Amino acid sequence: MLRVVSTLRPLLRSPLLPGPKPLPRPRRPPRPFRALSSAAPLAASPPSAPSPAPGAVEFREEHLVRCAAARRAPLRVAVLLSGGVDSSVALRLLHAAGHSCTAFYLKIWFQEDFRNFWSECPWDDDLKYAQAVCDKIDVPLEVVHLSDEYWNHVVSHMINEYRNGRTPNPDVLCNTRIKFGAFLEAIENLGFDYIASGHYAHVVHPPFENAEGPSVLQLSKDEVKDQTYFLSHLSQPQLRRLLFPLGCITKDEVRSLAVQMDLPNQARKDSQGICFLGKVKFSEFVQRHIGEMKGTVDDTSLFYGTI
Fold first, then answer.
1. Which family does it belong to (predicted)?
2. Per-domain residue ranges for the chain?
3. Residue 275 catalytic?
4. Predicted local distance difference test score (pLDDT) of residue 289
5. Which of 15, 108, 266, 305 is most buried, judged by most C-beta within 10 A?
6. Among the listed residues 22, 4, 31, the one whose alpha carbon sits nearest the alpha carbon of residue 192
């Protein structure tokens, strides 16, 4: 049963938009962790197995479970689940590896603010798919309302920057201040060892004998889908708490694995827009909040210092 979590709202509302509150360092060092990037490569199928169809990706789930730290003692993992294929496969891998998983759907939509832009609820399908995936895997799903935090710490900052001629990336801000900021602070005392998501990235954690060493963000196996740029502003206290099970898998392999796992959303298309806008065009959003300014467009392609 879906339970709405209304208590995970720790951030104070502030019109001054200060930077994200520094996350407290864990009271104890992380448990020994086998770096995701050291996972063994995908093993070939045995000789007796039938040949795959042309263009198909053939592999077995037990090989990919290694990407979810299968050789570790069971962990308590909070998994960010969006309803998309990537986060669903990440959840399934961690669950198959024997970890105790709880899925969290972060609701950051502003349907009240954009009621004239759409007639349907923009996050309804996402939540239905997330619930269907959790029902199939048999893990609990919690819904966390963070729309106020998102507005105060991401959207308002972005609008102010656009007014001043700067163009921050909202996904970088969301990862730093919301997904691995406000949410991480909210569950700090709930006993979870790590937070996991469906990002295409690696986090290589220090060995147990050097627990105070840095956790290192590295490129994923899929260089096209790699998302380390959007995670590049994360701090050490944030990185030390993260798992990215898809870091050693390509997008094609994720799609094939979703079919193999028979996930309810296996055929769902990837989202393309900015997460909080849904079907609203970003240009419409900017125009609504900061208006338009007249000016001269220089299309000569000449820039000072380039000749």
1. Belongs to the MnmA/TRMU family.
2. 3-11+32-37+56-290
3. yes
4. 75
5. 108
6. 31
